[in-house]
Amino acid sequence: MINRILALLIRYKNISFGSFPRLLSIFYWPTVQILFWGYFTNFFMSNDSFGIWSTLNIILSAVVLWDVLFRGQLGLTISFFEELWSRNLPNLFITPLKDIEMVYGLILISLIRTLIGITPAVFFANYFFDFHLFELGLYLIFLFLNLIIFGWSIGFIVSGLVLRYGQAFEELAWAIIFIILPFSCVYYPLDSLPNIVQDIALFLPTVHIFETMRFILIENKIVLNNVFIIIFLNLFYLILSILFFLKMIFVARKRGLLFNQGE
Amino acid sequence: MLKTSIRTKNLSKSYDNKTVVSNVSINLPYGGIFGVLGKNGAGKTTFLAMLMGLITPSEGEIFIFDKSLKLHKYEILKNINFQSPYVDLPKKITVMQNLIFYARLYDVKHIKKKILKLSDDLFIKDLLDNIYGTLSSGQKTRVNLCKALLNDPKLLLLDEPTASLDISTSEFIRKYIKSFQKKNNSTILITSHNLEEIEKMCSHIILLEKGKIKFDGKKNELFKQNKSSSLKDIFLNDD
After folding, report:
1. Buried b (16+ CB within 10 A) or exposed e, B97-116
2. Residue A168 touches chain B, beta carbons under 8 Å
3. What percent of chain B has pLDDT over 90?
4. What are the strands of the beta sheet with B212-218, ordered from one edge?
5. Which stretch of A76-85, A114-123, B23-32, B147-156 has the lowest confidence by average pLDDT?
6. What is the DSSP letter of A19?
7. Residues of B in contact with A96 (CB under 8 A)
8. pTM for this model (two decimals)
9. Tell me, what's the ipTM?
10. CB contact under 8 A, A96 and B56
11. Chain B residues close to A259, C-beta within 8 Å
12. For A106, B136, B174, B190, which has the most beta carbons within 10 A of its beta carbon?
């Protein structure tokens, strides 16, 4: 009996600790939770000037918009993973489908999936909690588009890594968003973070997007400089991630990886 | 008129200094069924994958229908198709949805009509509304063959087309492939471990051994050269 239990234990150990992404998935949750709730509590303990309903509105707006990023990324990676899981990549890549056409297809399906996923959530929040995301007006479209674009950037990076390094990297599809969550200042402002972390966080478009969202909801204003930074960072990351994804397809062809993917 | 269907020049593929295909040069005429034989690890699948642009060669050149695959890839791919038991279609959607998807990728005209005609020929009409993942392996093979024929390929690559199928389904598939070839005068390249199958279907055989060409020519010449009357004898004597 001990031998059989030991065999199971070794097997699960090999599966769980066999690759860096899997190992990462074991400890990222507790770390992320601590960081996130720590910054969140700090901020709300020291700020009670907004009033409970304004605060709730800001938090719910942040929840919905954060989900845009998550759905955008997941919508792209899962659509690509479906091809891997079903061992369909060779069929796909021997058609006249160009690599860049695949990029466009993934972007469009992610947009559709995100809209379908988010729309009911917004209406439920509106109905049950008197939540007015639409107070953001036209800016909502700007914020939505920029969040989903950053989701695509992450999605292309994750898809490229999975194509190149195999399914161990699939864990990243779910983990990566939550790794950047504490540094994205979704539910608290940038100055809640320690100075050194702030300097790094500024490279994330999400920081500027959520700062903009709060500024609109509280001050009813938009900082133009922030808008330019968001557009610049997003375009930079999107182009970089698409080039990375295309490069990984190229490498996969070179290393014969398109044939060996699948469950 | 096309002179050759497949021409390769010193085609090689290596991974981390391990050579899988080495200096393969072939010249296959247009039209006919050709067999690629070899033991496990001989480089058959890698060779086939290079012909479809799925694997980039380390060295050498590939010409399909007298055009460089490197320079005219997407134009060539319109006229190629492929089937393998090791490559599947998305399991969560129906057979029809899968076939429509591929028909669109190949720009097939009158998609529904084409699918209905092929599915009728391959006896999968009743399966069109079934979820692909629920099909048996024999049914999946026929669906995959249907996918492979959607664009009336001038070059059809088949990797073990009857692997894990029962005798009657295998025989049906073989007959169908033969009749398709005759009707369309296409080129079909088959890899198989089923020597009898290759013997029955192919007039021309390419024998690969450790990534190199051991034989490339008419089946009868191979028999003559090895003083054997069957491929099985040649393979067994080789051991």
Report:
1. ebbbbbbebbebeebeebbe
2. no
3. 66
4. B80-83, B155-159, B187-191, B32-37, B204-209, B212-218
5. A114-123
6. S
7. 74-75, 77-78, 105-107
8. 0.88
9. 0.89
10. no
11. 45, 49, 54-55, 86-87
12. B190
